[in-house]
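Mods, move this if it's the wrong board.
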Amino acid sequence: MTPVLYLAQRGTAVVLAFAVTIHLATIIYAIRGGLTAGEILARTHGNRWFLGFYLMFVLAAAIHAPIGLRSIFREWAKWRGRSLDVAMLAFSALLLVLGMRAALAVYLA
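Not the wrong board. Structure tokens:
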């Protein structure tokens, strides 16, 4: 792993630790509060804080996960070279697009 990938994965791990904690706390709050899906969507509709938080979450995951998978494929499958890098870049783009789409759908609902 290059120093840039190492720092990117460690930096995004910090962001993800914060984001996952907030995400899980929000889920617990919603469940214990008895909120319905409609009530949750009403609270997130047009909420820029929600959108910003989840876009940050998605970006961190889209960077972090492919770097980790790249290391696993290199070690376990002995997959190396340009094709691995291209595949992980495509996976990152897929995570980014799908995650942004989900966050925007809830924001605009």
